[in-house]
Amino acid sequence: MTTLLLRAVEVAPGRTGLAAARSALASRLEGVGSPFALVPRASRHISDDYCHTVRLAVHPDEPVEDGDTVVVLATSGSTGTPRGVCITRDNLVAAVESSWEHVPGLRDCAWAVALPVTSIAGFATLVRAHLADTPVHSLDSIGGAVPFTPDALMALPISQPFAISLVPTQLSDVLTSPRATRWLADASAVMVGGAMTPRELTERARDAGIHLVTTYGMTETTGGCVYDGVPLPGVTIEVDHVDPITGLGRISLAGPAVAAGYRLDPVATAAAFTGQDAHRRFMTADRGSWHDGRLDVSGRIDDVVSIHGVNVGLDAVEAVVRSEASVRDVAVVAVPDHRAGHRIIAFVVLSDPSRLDSIAALVADRLGGAARPDVIEIAQLPLLINGKIDRHSLRALAQGDPQGQ
């Protein structure tokens, strides 16, 4: 049997990088190209160190574990070191076809690409367009070439039904512009994922007539496989080890889109993946529960910390902070503390700085004194290449490293 080596495809910021990714995808799906990994090039918000970390995670120029592998994509690394995920042809086809079956008209849509194609959400738009033979319209901002702006969205030359994938921060930016909001309302589907979408943001978008689809999934599941809390066709969800007090348990996802495993890491693969083919299952690091037949994702397993012996959920703290009207954005992290066990820090972007001192008291009043955070105002939250909040950098900043190293 011929040994297949994984080749690295460097993805430059902007449309140049998108073209390289599309070419590699088309060649591999048509059976004439080799398995590939997408590695970003440095840009205005992607560091050389991050690009090097991705390269280490995907192990280019070494044999692939599964001959059906199409692409190896790095996980976001929002809470740790990125891992390479091996995604097969069957994974890609299953993920796309299940989304077509669930969302009427999605198969006929052109795609506006606003997310980096080195992330699963951005790459999935290329796969959908390729399998359906529909056009792709790309923003210059992908990969950090230039800033994302609502005006750039409206300038895309789209003349047929279209869909787009965004992260919550981009959707929030669009909603600040009435013209861009009306433009987005013309989309057949606006897929929003990459981070937990605040309920208030979801309601604002839908009230504005936007056909919003909130998605839950990860690189290991070939992107979103739960839409608006409902599993896509062929996907099964289990919530195990439910806490009798909170009602939350650990989420696992199964179906034909669950990836082959982690690149050259059989121990981590065995710990997270079980089963084969349509019964392949991935054990996530997320907590959730069922409400009215829909999955409600409530944060990560490791987002519950002990403070003076009291368990505190960081997602609960974040929800209370977000309820303060002056808070435009928030991210809550915890760092070790030799006396209390952990210390909670809420980084906030405020429209009214005079409200800063009231936030900690609000949290303590609603959740108890153990949950009271240190509150730090910040001009904007640091983001990873895929639009997720860079919590690793925030934890480093909370511990006194201004560079987030």
Task: Explain what the structure shows.
This protein is an alpha/beta fold. It has two domains: 7-298, ANL, N-terminal domain (Rossmann fold, 3-Layer(aba) Sandwich), CATH 3.40.50.12780; 308-398, ANL, C-terminal domain (GMP Synthetase, Chain A, domain 3). It has twelve helices and 22 strands. The chain has helices at residues 15-29, 48-58, 89-102, 120-132, 150-154, 168-175, 178-185, 199-207, 266-272, 314-323, 356-367, 391-398; strands at 7-11, 36-40, 69-74, 84-88, 110-113, 136-138, 162-166, 189-192, 212-218, 223-227, 230-231, 236-240, 249-254, 261-262, 273-274, 281-291, 294-300, 304-307, 310-313, 327-337, 341-350, 374-377. Helix 1 packs across helix 4 and helix 10 (314-323) crosses helix 11.
Structure at a glance:
With 405 residues, the chain is α/β, with parallel strands linked by helices.
Per-chain topology:
Layout: E1 7-11, H1 15-29, E2 36-40, H2 48-58, E3 69-74, E4 84-88, H3 89-102, E5 110-113, H4 120-132, E6 136-138, H5 150-154, E7 162-166, H6 168-175, H7 178-185, E8 189-192, H8 199-207, E9 212-218, E10 223-227, E11 230-231, E12 236-240, E13 249-254, E14 261-262, H9 266-272, E15 273-274, E16 281-291, E17 294-300, E18 304-307, E19 310-313, H10 314-323, E20 327-337, E21 341-350, H11 356-367, E22 374-377, H12 391-398
Keywords:
405 residues, 22 strands, Rossmann fold, 2 domains, alpha/beta, GMP Synthetase, Chain A, domain 3, seven-stranded mixed sheet, five-stranded mixed sheet
